[in-house]
Amino acid sequence: MPGYTSINAKMVQVPIGHGQDVYSRRGSMLAYVGNVDFAPTVTDGQGIGGAIGRRMAGESVPMMHVTGQGTAMFGHAGLYVHVIELTGDTLYIEADRLLLYDATLQKGTMFLGEQGGARGVIRGAVSGQGLFTTTLVGRGSCAVISHGGVIELPITPQRPIHVDPQAYVAHRGQVDNTLTTAMGLRDMIGRGSGEGFQLRLTGTGTVYVQASERKV
Amino acid sequence: MTSTTFNAATLPANDNVNPYAFSVDLNGQWFTQKGKMIAYYGQIRFQALSAGPLDMLVAESFHSPLYAHDWIVAEGQGKLLLADRGFDINSYDLDKGNLTIRAANLLAFEPGLELKQSIIPGFLTLIGTGRFVAASNGPVHFVEPPIRVDPQALLGWADCPSPCHHYDHGYVRGVLGAARMMFGVGGTSGEEHQFDFTGEGTVLIQSSEHVTSSDAMLRELEGQIGMLGVPGLRQLHGTIAQRLAAEQQH
């Protein structure tokens, strides 16, 4: 199955066909050739239970189901688009960063406490990303959006990595993420460095970081 | 990464300084959109189109009263630097050709070209021979028809017939679709409306941008509202409310 083609840093082209349908963020289609249909969906192929769960978790960005026969191009608000291939592993991503993904991928919602324990909960609350994150499992491709492009940083057991929570986009692999604080007296009196909170990722995997601290 | 320090002599002549800035080697007159000049070397005057001595030039090259007060004429000799919102800047050469482009994204053009309003609101057509400079949100992607393009992602088109509107409501068919229509379940995909291009030519696409509030387009629409009458105005009121809700959702 031919994958996603990056036209340039901000646009991606995807073949659509039988068994090659995708889910994409609503309103992110730029152009298409052929007979391609765009239908709003609330379940994202997950069933109604998943949809309700996601809505409750606040990880719900309106998506649409793209089917038919042809080629479609996607992009969103001039943000950078990065294609990630999944080969049976799991991608953890903020819902609003997800531009599109193959319908062959299983989308789910994960409670941050499962991975990071109580600290995961604190992390979600402090970084403003909520207590839940979206997961994609399976074989296929997905595309994520970011300000200024993403860089992939490897995580190894010997080298944990610290990331600004606002610059964090996604991660994959066997990774524990916890929020660390470097708060000191200076922060209390408003003379801090502005880098009081960091996401600490340990284990084996990859983290995707954007070149900006802006949200989508 | 090294950065070069330019001076009047080393600035590129009619070429990009970097992907986001363009240097015009001015020797005579160029039309430029207001507010897109970031710097210049030399003796350059900027005059409103209404200036008396420009009458002849405007009459020959600028056929759009609607946009007249968004544009000025740069006159003189020197290097003129143009940029826009950090967008990618490209220059295009036309040889007895025509190209239509989103009005807000056209930065400047040589008087050898004639500017006219396109049938599609918010777009301008350039006809003739000469060079112009335009901005795009990310690099421009050139495609050939047949293709359907999201209005917000359309930058322009060349040589092909004007597009028509394409409306796609395939998903409202069937039982589920009917339920969607009746109860508003699931919302809309935001992709019901495209510009449909057919025939020979080239279509220019960019990553969609939040359409900059274009005064000209607003004036154009306002000018036509008077013809609607009370029922039409009432309906328009509803449409605007709906659209507003949809935009705020995205």
Automatic annotation (TrEMBL), chain A:
Gene3D superfamilies: Mitochondrial biogenesis AIM24. It comes from the Bacteria. Pfam families: AIM24. This is AIM24 family protein. It comes from Actinomadura alba. The lineage of its organism: Bacteria, Bacillati, Actinomycetota, Actinomycetes, Streptosporangiales.
Automatic annotation (TrEMBL), chain B:
Transmembrane segments: none annotated. It comes from the Bacteria. It holds the Pfam family AIM24. Gene3D superfamilies: Mitochondrial biogenesis AIM24 (3.60.160.10). PANTHER family: ALTERED INHERITANCE OF MITOCHONDRIA PROTEIN 24, MITOCHONDRIAL. This is AIM24 family protein. It comes from Actinomadura alba.
